[in-house]
Amino acid sequence: MEIIVLPTPAEVGELAARKVAQTIARKPAAVIGLATGSSPLAIYAELGALVRGGHLDASQVRGFALDEYVGIPEGHPQSYASVIKREVVEPLGLAPGSVLVPDGRAHDLEAACVQYEAAMRDAGGVDIQILGIGANGHIGFNEPTSSFASRTRIKTLAPQTRADNARFFDNPDEVPMHCVTQGLGTIMEARELLLVAQGGRKAAAIAAAAEGPVSSMCPGSILQFHPYATVIIDEVAAGQLTLTDYYRHTYANKPSWQRF
Ligand code: F6R
Questions:
Q1: Which of 66, 152, 232 to mutate to test the pocket of ligand 1 (most atoms within 8 A of CB)?
Q2: Pocket of ligand 1, candidates 133, 162, 187: which has the most ligand atoms within 8 Å of its Cβ, to mutate?
């Protein structure tokens, strides 16, 4: 796992966007895995700016969202379908229909999960998966004790996750209880993983994911098994890591051909 510690959240967004932009430059029809929540917003804003400035053409990019709330009304501003449209599809100029989001309103949710996996496979798999991490170590909505072999499925959100996400809703009771999320096994099939985190509320989860034992108690620790996982965080999110000086040393001496 490559761990890059940068001074500010803005720099995290900028560097992570550069990595995604490099993936698209190398493969214009790249398939991008998309996290929602606040962590990746700076990445999407930066990619949008690159597109508007004529430095990036994302018109052939396709995408798959990590997760969606179950039962959230269609068009609700906090449904991940709405968030992806507003924060990714429109600013990056992606083609309509090029990004799929799990269907949290399907009559047969289990069948919809199977279809989602099939659609990802048919698209040739994900080239780069953007991830945030929950304060309890979840990635996607794979809460602690999720199986490392799990596939896209219905999960019950942890009380802490519902409380954390209440900030996006008018009323905390409005936060859905259930979600559909790509599984940890699904996420691990992406060719590259790119996790970003900012701020002190993520410091314990980052330390557990990057330096702790690989354990389903911290689902993010599964990244230690991925051959191409990059973690880009700010100083504050790095606050509980023990090898930060080594990560700085490695990044400062990163070979030029590996830079992005
Ligand atoms: C959402 C997702 C979650 C978030 C995590 C952090 O699609 O995959 O794992 O990344 O809950 O949320 P924020 O970024 O809002 O702190």
A1: 66
A2: 133
**Cα within 13 Å of Cα(159), Cβ side:** 0
pLDDT (tens digit per residue) in 37-70: 999 999 999 999 999 999 999 999 999 999 999 9
Residue nearest to atom 15 of ligand 1 (CA): 37
| Interval 11-43: pLDDT, tens | 999 999 999 999 999 999 999 999 999 999 999
66 ligand 1 Cβ < 6 A: yes
pLDDT category of residue 96 using cuts at 50, 70 and 90: confident
DSSP string of 89-154, one letter each residue: IHHHTPPTT-EE---TT-SSHHHHHHHHHHHHHHTT--SEEEE---TTS-BTTB-TT--TT--SEE
* Residue 134 in contact with ligand 1 by CB distance below 6 A: yes
